[in-house]
Amino acid sequence: MGSMDIPTEQWAQVIEKTGGPVEYKKIPVPKPGPDEVLVNIKYTGVCHTDLHALNGDWPLATKLPLVGGHEGAGVVVARGDLVKDVEIGDHAGVKWLNGSCLACDFCMQADEPLCPKPQLSGYTVDGSFQQYCIAKAAHVARIPKDVALDAIAPVLCAGITVYKGLKESGARPGESVAIVGAGGGLGSLAQQYAKAMGLKVIAIDTGDEKSKMCLEQLGADSFVDFAKSKDVVQEVKNATPDGLGPHAVLLVAVSEKPFQQAAEYVRPRGTVVCIGLPANAFLKAPVFESVIKMITIKGSYVGNRKDGAEAIEFFRRGLIKAPFKVVGLSELQMVYDKMIRGEIAGRYVLDTSR
Ligand code: NAD
Ligand code: ZN
Ligand code: ZN
């Protein structure tokens, strides 16, 4: 096993029991297996999924104790004997899909997020809220050296996921997409990817800070405040030139309501892409309108390795600029508190050195 100087102990944020709190403490540095690498995480984004894991509100159990986190950007410091195509010193990203079997029907078709035996970072295996994190070499994101590790961190889950979701929507340059939950981590990146893909953006979220960010920083063409609007459906339709609604809807919100509303404002022949995962939520659409409008409703789940590489390449080319705030790894609980209150515009990124 090749390696650099690696300490035996490190700082981490650990969930001892579902519901929390997270505990900032020292734990041993793990050793990579033959097909794994050890990544010295420099920066890691905080995704709302990490909060679902802490709260245990999805119908899938986490490992315990658990180190959360799946937007980890850092430097490879050790690798197992079977790893040939990742070098010590390379920059790499730990994604939600930490590993998959690579042999099942889905993995063989590069649909690895659908693998029935996945390893999920910060959920079924320890993730990036620690200074040294293990990931399967085949799955780590390759990060070019000219890309800043703090800014790329949110791309490793949020960026890849919304880029894939936009592709799944089938929306073409010049068409409109509504981004629901636009002011959050996924939503802010979704606006930038959508603009880079030549789409017009209707941002939907709430509050002056998020409205300003969407319209002035992220390039949204219009903003609908779901909490203030008297008729969200009509306002979204009105935001398209012919009043017939957006060609695609990307649902990245953390509440159920918009999942039951999107079918009403999506354009005939349009596509609703469900990405957000609010707890205990159900999709609902009127059968009559869905049929006579010939709409498509589908789910989209992270992305494969190629989607990941493409999303990073968009960023490297300077096309993706989404706001993020950097705080120490020790401050994770504060980030969760803000997330619960819906107060985060964009993304928080943790610096693992403090
Ligand atoms: P976030 O907390 O940063 O953002 C969520 C946003 O939704 C907030 O800005 C909030 O104001 C907004 N919102 C809440 N209710 C709304 C409503 N009724 N209408 C419009 N907006 C509303 O969360 P995030 O990190 O961007 O994650 C969003 C969701 O996506 C989470 O449920 C997360 O688990 C899920 N997720 C899914 C995938 C996937 O592959 N499908 C990947 C990553 C995250
Ligand atoms: Zn995520
Ligand atoms: Zn598989």
TrEMBL record:
Domain Enoyl reductase (ER): 19-350
Cofactor dependency: Zn(2+)
Enzyme Commission code: 1.1.1.1
Recorded GO CC terms: cytoplasm
Presence of keyword Transferase: no
Keywords: Metal-binding, NAD, Oxidoreductase, Zinc
InterPro entries for this protein: ADH-like_C, ADH-like_N, ADH_Zn_CS, ER, GroES-like_sf, NAD(P)-bd_dom_sf
Entry coiled-coil feature ranges: none
SMART domains in UniProt: PKS_ER (SM00829)
Pfam families the record matches: ADH_N, ADH_zinc_N
Record carries keyword Metal-binding: yes
One GO MF term: alcohol dehydrogenase (NAD+) activity
Entry-linked PANTHER family: ALCOHOL DEHYDROGENASE 1-RELATED
Family the entry assigns: Belongs to the zinc-containing alcohol dehydrogenase family.
Name of the protein described by the UniProt record: alcohol dehydrogenase
Origin species: Microdochium bolleyi
